Predict the 3D structure of the following.
Amino acid sequence: MEKKLSGVIALLGVGIVALPTGIISSAFVEKIQERKKGKQPTCNCPHCGKEI
């Protein structure tokens, strides 16, 4: 009985840490992608680098 209870508590502990970490990291990646899109033009000339 004690092993089962400790296993459930361990899984809950991992879940409590993993869920917010996934949410925060996905928001972080989304922000980075938005910044990259904002700074760089959508289509550049491969020779001179100007926006097409």
